[in-house]
TrEMBL record:
Keywords: Pyridoxal phosphate. The keyword Lyase does not apply. The modification N6-(pyridoxal phosphate)lysine is found at K44. This is Pyridoxal phosphate homeostasis protein. InterPro entries: Ala_racemase_N (IPR001608), PLP-binding_barrel (IPR029066), PyrdxlP_homeostasis (IPR011078).
Length: 252
């Protein structure tokens, strides 16, 4: 069933409350504290006027895929909403690193040294730092961005060279299917990889975060250890374009 578009502040409050109740139930089933799992509302394609309603409904951070779209929203809203945090959760083309360094609070999709180098240079120039998560392709699908799991440790060992990047954990997109065991396998792989990297990577002690799970599978993600779930359509409503539109070069 498609998600209904949230058009009012009350719609958004109701949707967020419903998501949080489901999150709490998933935490209870898995013996976790609800305080250990963050809801990151994903606002890609949602127009500014509806994001202002989300702010009124209590939303204080938003996830965006496309740099240009996120940057434009930040510029339009930063005067009225100075406490609003923007998290870039989509692939970064290095020519956009300048914009990301200027406005983002987090970047969830680091998967190349080239991007790390570009971000670090821009951040250093601005005197800023940025929390980053390394994207891992846990499904093995060629259509998705992210490092192969076996490449993660070598990649992590290169990242201390970029002093402005605070490596906080890992991110993944599960296989796009309703097959629960296949989806859970992607999440469990990320959790197990994070646990191994805690022992072997230079940043091991800081690798607390697992960003995984979206509108259709966030409960499974929580039960497999997610610390951040990225939920868009279940809060704001169905998007008019397919997911493939939001990923450059046909990748996710």
């Amino acid at each position: 069933m498609p998600f209904e578009t949230a058009l009012t502040e009350e719609d958004l409050r109701r949707n967020i409350a419903a998501i949080r109740a489901r999150m709490d139930a998933a935490c209870q089933r898995s013996g976790r504290s609800p305080q250990d799992v963050r809801l990151l509302p994903v606002s890609k394609t949602v127009p500014e006027e509806r994001l202002r309603l989300a702010w009124a409904a209590g939303v204080r951070e938003m996830g965006e895929n496309k740099v240009q779209e996120a940057y434009g929203k930040w510029q339009a809203m930063r005067q009225d909403m100075p406490g609003l945090r923007w998290c870039l959760i989509g692939h970064l083309q290095t020519n956009k690193a300048r914009l990301v360094a200027e406005f983002a609070s987090e970047f969830h999709a680091l998967d190349s040294l080239r991007a790390a180098r570009a971000l670090d240079a821009r951040l250093q120039a601005l005197g800023r730092s940025l929390d980053v998560l390394v994207q891992i392709n846990t499904s093995g699908e060629a259509s998705k961005f992210g490092l192969a799991p076996q490449e993660a440790l070598a990649f992590m060992r290169e990242l201390p060279a970029f002093a402005s990047l605070n490596v906080r954990g890992l991110m993944t997109l599960a296989m796009h299917t309703t097959d629960e065991p296949q989806v859970r396998q992607c999440f469990a792989l990320l959790r197990d990889l994070r646990d191994r990297l805690r022992q072997d990577a230079p940043q091991g002690a800081a690798l607390a975060e697992l960003s995984m799970g979206m509108s259709g599978d966030f409960e499974w993600a929580i039960e497999e250890g997610a610390t951040t779930v990225r939920v868009g359509q279940a809060i704001f409503g169905a998007r008019s374009l397919p997911d493939s539109h939001y990923w450059p070069e046909g990748k996710a």
